């Protein structure tokens, strides 16, 4: 915990500094949500196909999901999502010809969540 997933349109691969975003996001999660830096894990997934509304093309999406153990206030979750959006503005260059849709959510991990580390 936290479990962070960043889904993004494949068209953004060359304009989205994912490593820089991740290295900036982890300390933000630590500061806002009182997580431990060594527990922050991020998976980036490029999606080949995205559809927005009834547009044939010309749109790109970034969606960040942060799963935390339950107990954070709604205010904390909102501060974290706002911080994520601010970071995205810093690490996403304009993509010519694409309308960009960026979103973020913080959700509580289910009570069944377990993990183990090895190595």
UniProtKB/TrEMBL annotation:
Q: Which InterPro entries match?
A: 5-COMe_2-OHmuconate_Isoase, Tautomerase/MIF_sf
Q: What domain of life is recorded for the organism?
A: Bacteria
According to the UniProt entry, its GO molecular function terms are: 5-carboxymethyl-2-hydroxymuconate delta-isomerase activity
- What Pfam families does UniProt report for this protein, alphabetically? CHMI
Q: What is this protein called?
A: 5-carboxymethyl-2-hydroxymuconate Delta-isomerase
Q: Which organism is it from?
A: Streptomyces jeddahensis
Species lineage: Bacteria, Bacillati, Actinomycetota, Actinomycetes, Kitasatosporales
């Amino acid at each position: 915990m936290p479990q962070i997933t960043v889904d993004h349109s494949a068209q953004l691969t060359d304009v989205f500094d994912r490593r820089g975003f991740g290295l900036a996001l982890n300390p933000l999660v630590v500061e806002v949500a009182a997580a431990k830096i060594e527990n922050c894990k991020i998976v980036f997934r490029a999606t080949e196909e995205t559809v927005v509304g009834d547009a044939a093309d010309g749109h790109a999406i970034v969606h960040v999901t942060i799963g935390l153990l339950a107990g954070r206030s709604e205010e904390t979750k909102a501060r974290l999502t706002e911080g994520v959006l601010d970071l995205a503005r810093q690490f996403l260059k304009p993509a010519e010809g694409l309308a960009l849709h960026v979103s973020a959510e913080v959700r509580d991990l289910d009570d069944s969540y377990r993990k183990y580390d090895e190595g």
